[in-house]
Specification:
The complex is a heterodimer of chains A (about 260) and B (about 120).
Chain A (H helix, E strand, L loop, with lengths): L4 E2 L10 E8 L16 E5 L2 E7 L5 E2 L2 H15 L4 E3 L5 E2 L2 H9 L3 H10 L3 E10 L1 H11 L1 H10 L8 H29 L4 E4 L7 E10 L3 H14 L3 E9 L14
Antiparallel strand pairs in A: 1-3, 2-4, 2-6, 2-7, 3-4, 8-10, 8-11, 9-10
Chain B lengths: L3 E2 L7 E4 L5 H8 L14 E2 L15 H13 L2 H13 L4 H4 L5 H5 L17
Antiparallel strand pairs in B: 1-2
Classes of the chains: A alpha+beta (about 260), B mainly alpha (about 120).
Chain lengths: ~260, ~120
């Protein structure tokens, strides 16, 4: 490809390339070691640059460290320009394949995605009940739970009321979760362009969600999260970002021509 | 990676500017990002270990029994005396996690190449 300029190791022209993401040509930044302990570089075509590093021919044996590298490379690039993250584990057969199958093949669509995500960031929030505090609150405020719990002090392990007790606790927890989750999401949504709410991963999880936020509104969302944390004494809040829009990017499916 | 906790002791917001540990990264990037058609050879081996679905089926007898056990174990006088302050600065994550979170912790405890525990909150 005559229009291709590469900062990746030229000796690797025919080898497999791990692709981290796509950014603007001329604004991209790549540095350090990537997946497979090789140097990260940029492969440019037209208005776009792929962030890549060479990997071996065989199947990629990804380690936990590689996941962190994938994330670090994208965070670094994102500090300089908008980045469209690719799914972890994306490998193409050569420099030419990166251009032909990605940068050239989807040029228009990738350009419009980069434009859309210009000056935006993903922030991810996880909120979890503090187990002991929330259970204590349920025991103190739910009469049925308190009564069953008292009865279980002297009951046998096989007493069927144990299940009743657990069910009552789960019910109370679910009600508290629903109310808190609604409030948290509504409060943060005011600062966001878009959001993705995920199903809770465990019994104590209140919210696991990503918010797409204009960069100038990041501080506003942070303040809202701080206010929520101050108000909800029995919930811990964990806010990560700004990051590239991992949860918000997608391409329209396209048949191989 | 810097983790700052904003505000006073009455707040409880952990703030990280970027994913700072394996759990964050798994949560954030696995199954996310652009997928580019059939051209791509996604040939990743060895990640199965960390994609265990730790989801708990909340409406099950097992879960109910765990809840029952958790509230029975609860020492309310201790909770009252200790107050929220103690719950909050309750040392490392590991210590403050109770039984309900067991499943979630399981997958991050078998790191194969580097530890990823997040710095615990100070003060």
């Amino acid at each position: 490809m005559s229009a291709t300029k590469t900062a990746a190791d030229p000796r690797n022209r025919a080898g497999n390339l791990y692709v981290y993401g796509v950014t603007w040509a001329g604004r991209g930044s790549a540095r350090g070691q990537g997946v497979g302990d090789t140097r990260v570089g940029l492969l440019e075509h037209g208005e776009l640059a792929a962030i890549v590093s060479p990997v071996g021919r065989g199947p990629l044996r990804a380690k936990r460290r590689d996941l962190l590298r994938h994330s670090d490379v994208l965070q670094h690039a994102f500090a300089h320009a908008p980045v469209l993250p690719l799914r972890f584990g994306t490998v193409l057969g050569s420099d030419d394949a990166v251009v032909d199958d990605l940068l050239a093949a989807r040029h228009e669509e990738l350009v419009s995605l980069l434009q859309r995500f210009e000056r935006t960031s993903e922030l991810r929030l996880r909120a979890n009940f503090v187990e002991r505090a929330v259970l204590a609150e349920i025991v103190q405020e739910d009469k049925q739970v308190a009564r069953l719990r008292e009865a279980m002090r002297t009951a046998s392990d096989a007493d069927p009321r144990r299940i009743q007790l657990g069910e009552a606790v789960a019910g109370a927890l679910n009600a508290m979760r629903a109310a808190a989750a609604d409030e948290i999401v509504a409060s943060l949504a005011q600062h966001a362009i878009d959001m993705r709410i995920e199903e809770p991963h465990d019994a104590l999880e209140v919210v696991r969600a990503s918010f797409l936020v204009e960069n100038r509104k990041v501080r506003g969302l942070e303040r809202a999260a701080e206010a929520l944390a101050a108000r909800h004494q029995r919930i811990t809040f964990d806010l990560v970002g700004p990051m590239p829009p991992h949860s918000f990017v997608s391409l329209t499916p396209q048949q191989r021509g | 990676m810097a983790i700052a906790t904003h505000g006073t002791a009455s707040n409880y917001l952990q703030r990280a500017p970027s994913p700072s540990g394996l759990a964050d990264v798994i949560d954030l990037i696995l199954d996310k990002g652009l997928v580019i058609d059939a051209y791509v050879r996604i040939a990743v081996i060895g990640i199965e270990l960390i994609t265990i679905d730790a989801r708990i089926v909340i409406a099950s007898v097992d879960t109910y029994l765990r809840f029952a056990e958790a509230v029975n174990r609860l020492d309310l006088t201790q909770t009252e005396a200790a107050g929220l302050a103690e719950l909050r600065d309750g040392g490392s994550d590991n210590k403050s996690k109770g039984m309900l979170e067991g499943a979630k912790k399981a997958f991050s405890s078998d790191n194969d190449d580097e530890p990823s525990s997040k710095p615990s909150k100070k003060d």
